[in-house]
Structures are given as C-alpha cells and as structure tokens.
Amino acid sequence: MIIQTKQIVLIPAYCPDEKLIALVKALHEMDFTIVVVNDGSRKEHEPIFKAVSGFAEVLVHEENKGKGAALKTGLGYIKNTFDIPYVVVTADADGQHLPEDILQVCETAQAKNGCLALGSRVIGQDAPLRSRIGNGITRMIFRLSTETKIYDTQTGLRAFGSELTDYMLSVDGERYEYEMNVLLHLKQNNIRAEEVKIKTVYLDNNSSSHFNPIKDSFKIFREILRFSASSLMSFVLDYSLFCALMALTGMTVLSNVLARIVSAAFNFSMNRIFVFGSREHIIKSAVKYFLLAVVVLVFNTLILRLLIAAGLPYMFAKIATEALMFFFSWTIQRIFVFKEART
Hints:
It is a single chain. The chain is α/β, with parallel strands linked by helices. It has helices at residues 18-29, 46-52, 67-81, 99-111, 129-146, 165-170, 177-184, 215-249, 252-275, 282-309, 314-337, and strands at 6-13, 33-39, 57-61, 86-90, 116-121, 158-161, 193-198. The protein folds into two domains: 6-213, Spore Coat Polysaccharide Biosynthesis Protein SpsA, Chain A; 224-337, no CATH class.
C-alpha cells in the first residue's frame, strides 16, 4: 500500500492584505492543505482571514507574538492533527512567494528526505537597498561563523518533512531570529540544507515587510554579539595581564600561559551563562571547555611566537593572534562545548 504524502503550506500572517487571499486560493487549487496563523492582526484585517477560512485552517493569536511563535503554533497544530508522512512548506503572506516556487521547494524536500529545502532568491540590483545590504551582511557573517555556505539566509520559503517537525519546534526564538536560529543549528543536528532557486518578487519596494532592520537584526545576531562582548572583555583582561607580565618577566610563553588561564576562567563563566545559556552540567561543560582552551592555547602561543619572531612588536602580535582565533573559538564552543544550550 502506497501512503500518500500530504503537502501542507504554513503561512504566518500579521496584518495581511488581499494578496494573502489570492495566494491561498491559488494553493488550494493546487491541492495543498493550508494552515494560516493570524498573529494578532488588527481588527480591520479580520475580513481577510474570513475570506481565506473557506480554503484554509485559520489559527489565531490574540496578540502579536512574532513570526517564530506563529510558525511554532502552526507546526504544533500540524503535528497533532495530521498523520505522517507530510511535508510542510512555510511561506510568507505578502505575495512574494509564487505558488509554482512553493510547489518546487515542497517537491525538493519530499524528494530529498531529511533535508531543509530553502527557496533561494537571487538578490540583484533591482532589489531594495535594505534587502541587498541585509542579505549580504547576513550571508557573510553566517558563512564565517558556521562554515556553511547558504546564499539566501533570510528566505521565508522553506520546506521539510515530518521527521524534522520536532527539531523545528525545539529551536529557540519567537520573532525573526527564529529563522536564523534554525539555520545556525542545522550542522550540529546533521541536517543538510538544499537551496532551490526561485523568482525574486519585491512588491512596492518590499514595503509590506514587518522586518525592522535595526531591532530584528540585533535579535538575529545577538548570540554572536554576546560572544563578541564576552570575547572582548576576556581579551582586555588577557591582554592587560600579558603586557604586565611581559614587562615584569620578559618571558613570552610564561606571560601568555598565565594570562590565558585567568582570562579563560572568566570567559568560560561568561559564555556558559550569558552567551549560550547552557543547561549542561557545569563539570561536563568545563571539561570540554578545558580541552578547547588547551588547543587554543597551543595554537595561540605558536602563532604569537611566530609573529614576534617575524619582527612584529609583541603588543600588535597579541592582537593579531586573538583576531585569528576568534571565529575558531566561537564555532567550537557552539557545536561542541555548549551544544546542549537553548535548543
């Protein structure tokens, strides 16, 4: 007996316009099952949701909770309502995702079991400036911090099979940061991303987007910003001790090792609580952090000695060394030391 895979489109919607009606009707004609989450929209938008209720299941948040929360509400409903197997496609309510692209991304997820299919937009010169800048910065930071190449990290058009539902529900974040957190944790959960090229549609210069470039960008990158703040404070402590000990002893290795021990203890406490919010037992995390600290210390000292031997003043050599080790340390802490964190 062949079990038919149900294809479900999940649309979080906050104060949508008539484009949502057109999208839902088109998807209904393509035999998709549709779930729409009204994320606390204002009362004047109720006719929109009433119009789509004949073609979709409409779930309601009494107040606005954010895109991440709306997606989780929809996923919880899907998990408790439909039998497996199914494929879920998340799409935006503003008409920027075309029905044929939604189908293409859905079919990719269905064909490649266990993957997260991403509708990847080509961001050209015709795209709004804030979209070009936002996507470019996000793409660069994401690749540096995760060693994973994803062209369109901010796409809302994503598809995955029922086997990933629990993972999607477990990811931290209630607003726009949720979608970035999903991508940040793919590698450590052995989930591959499959990008599918889709058409790029910007309506009225993307004015319908509720993304706040400053506030929501901070939420997306706050873990990296926290890590940067923690690393900066640890560096100031390490650098001050290193310079003081060098002035007193003139011994590079001894000064670097002693300064590193003190700053590492401070950095561990900051990262465990402030950056990653780890729930893992402190002893287990400490052992893994100690192993990482030994590796970092060895490479840190070798690079430092090489730079000083090459004629670079020790103060500048120390800064260059720490800059080289920054992303290495952040990546290892995320995927190994504090992996039992907020997710």
